[in-house]
Amino acid sequence: MVSKSISSLLNKYGSVTVVVYIWCIGIVIAMVVFNIQPLLEIMPWFKFTIGCNMFIFFLELYLDIRQSFTIRAFNYPNSNYHEIKYHIQNILGLINFSRTESTIGFIIECLVLYFGVLVGIYNINDYIWFYFGFNRTYEITRGMAYLLEISLISSLVRLPFEMYRIYIDQPSNEDSNNNNNPNNNPNNNKTPAGETNKTYDKFKNKDWIKQIIWDQIKMFLISLFVGLPLLTITLSLFYWQYPYQWFTIVIFVSIVALFFSDLYPSIAYLFNNFSVLEDCQLRNEISELSRKLNFPLHEIYTMDGSKRVSHSNAFLMGFWTSSFVLYDNLIKQLTTQEILAIIGHEIGHHKFMHNMKHLLIQLVFVGNFIYLFSSVVNLQVFYVGFGFDRVDVSVGLVLFSYLYSTFANLLRFVTNLIRREFEYAADAYAIENGLEMKKALVSMHGKGVYIKPDRFFSLYYYSHPTLMERLESINLIKKSLSSSSSSTNNNNNNNNNNNNNNNNNNNNNNNNNNNNNNNNNNDNDNDDNININNKKLD
Fold first, then answer.
1. Confidence (pTM)
2. What residues form the membrane-spanning segments (predicted)?
3. 20 to 30 A from 236, CA-CA: which of 95, 157, 297, 428?
């Protein structure tokens, strides 16, 4: 009975999802039952933090090297090589850039921790507050100031890398022209000369610099007006000492997460232009598909995603009210039937409640972070290991973030496994409803359709399966559906044959009965005739 229940769960939710759910429940039970305080008091925190970050650094370095070798060694089709040559170079360049950024970031982190830069900033901050008359009774105010200073310095260090990363993903003029022409033939674009002007065209366009700076200002203001009050409440809850403190904070964070999940559209309006999809064939087709699949469609929007990124996308917006958002370059790049397949895929996410499940898993991970942090936040040895001479919640939050980033990367790998199963399930839902996912995926990937990433690299970094993996899954789903339909047809044919045989048997039985009745009647008639003759003789 138990084995049947487990197998049914695995078939319904997927093996990885069930294992992660069980693991999350185990984490919650372990947090409540086990006492890990003695272990935390003997932990060499500084060496442990450096060691964890070093492990992640070399792991990602190894994965990047594998990815570079895989892309270079792949046999690309000669007929399309000129078309994808510069796309491959961009991918390799992005890998090298990411590795350079990670190396510099790792070195800076080690130097900051080793030379006590955080301690120096804290002492300067302490001196300034004392100078203006704010003593240590203003713990929350001083703590918030320290966190803002660290956050601002970190943002300034990352800003050049972030600007270059956004610059790489900016659509070039050629990409825009290709997106505007849905009937574009890629074989007409083989001259490398046209490709070499991409970077030059980008440098001539100065609008992206203004856009990045303005976006950074808006994000800073949002974090200031939205994140500051939330962080203040969280710090206040940590400063107050009471039983099961961590559980109260987890409940607060969960409520905030549910609230902001539906507030995303209001924030997204600050960065992109949204407009209601005008009354056209595409809108009518999407509405009809939603009615067919019993999806509670609220509205259909288009977003000017092409001004920021070169890839196309579509997503479901809203937690309580469901609306579709289509990138403008998606509408230009895909046909109506292909867009309907993408919409069917998103409806599959809604039907299987993938967003809710993903949110619950994230809350478990956040609860894990809060529980572990609450275990070390008042531990004197934790601060002494990094050069601080007293306990402070704001300092502890910064130090623990350095340590927990290692586990966050590993948890991201687990989350990616779950989200990959979600994508497979949504693809299957679209295919089962007669939508052509394969053509839609190939059209969305564009030149990236020929790129086959390293398996371990994609498992670690990609939240979605690769194109090849999804196409293989689609072929298996179609094969399964065709075999099930053929078996159904065979069963129907067998039933029809059985019915025909039964009818023939019934007809034969009826004929036999009729013949018997006729024979009996004839016998009776003969008997009557004999009797009549006998009477005549009498």
1. 0.77
2. 12-36, 42-63, 104-124, 144-161, 219-240, 246-264, 359-383, 395-414
3. 157
